């Protein structure tokens, strides 16, 4: 995971990537995660977003359908823990 993040960052311009990680104390509903995703897509800003899958129930959609395809090249979504290095 750390190598994926570093490789993706190295392909971007310096100081051009938004880092999004809410940590372990924030819990979001699927609707809230969908709104964050829509805002990131609309912003046009390059980003790395660490999403904890435990935030939503198994029956709920984690992110909008095809979101990763929509932001391909602009955003990197990592499910699970963010590397602290």
List unreliable stretches of 5+ residues. Answer: none
- Output the CATH class name: Alpha Beta
Mean pLDDT: 79
How many helical stretches? 3
CATH architecture designation:
3-Layer(aba) Sandwich
Q: Which percent range fits the helix content?
A: 25-40%
Instruction: List how many beta strands DSSP finds.
Output: 3
Secondary-structure element series: HEHEHE
Number of domains: 1
Radius of gyration based on Cα positions: 13 Å
Strand order of the largest sheet: 1-2-3
CATH level-four homologous superfamily name: Glycogen Phosphorylase B
Shape: globular
What is the distance, rounded to the nearest whole angstrom, between the alpha carbons of the first and last residues?
11 Å
Strand percent estimate: 15-25%
- CATH topology descriptor: Rossmann fold
Kindly describe this structure:
This protein has 85 residues and is α/β, with parallel strands linked by helices. β2, α3 and β3 form a beta-alpha-beta unit. It is 32% helix and 19% strand. The protein has helices at 2-10, 30-43, 67-70; strands at residues 17-21, 46-51, 75-79. It has one domain (2-79): Rossmann fold, CATH 3.40.50. The radius of gyration is 13 Å and the shape is globular. It has three helices and three strands; from the N terminus they run αβαβαβ. The model has no long low-confidence stretch (mean pLDDT 79). A three-stranded parallel sheet has the order 1-2-3, covered by helices on one side. 11% of the residues are buried.
């Amino acid at each position: 995971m750390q190598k994926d993040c570093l490789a993706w960052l190295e392909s971007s311009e310096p100081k051009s990537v938004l880092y999004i990680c809410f940590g372990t104390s924030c819990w979001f509903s699927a609707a809230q995660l969908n709104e964050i995703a829509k805002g990131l897509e609309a912003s046009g800003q390059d980003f790395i977003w660490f999403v904890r899958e435990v935030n939503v129930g198994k029956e709920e959609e984690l992110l909008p359908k095809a979101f990763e395809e929509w932001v391909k090249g602009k955003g990197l979504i990592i499910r699970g823990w963010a590397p602290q290095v």
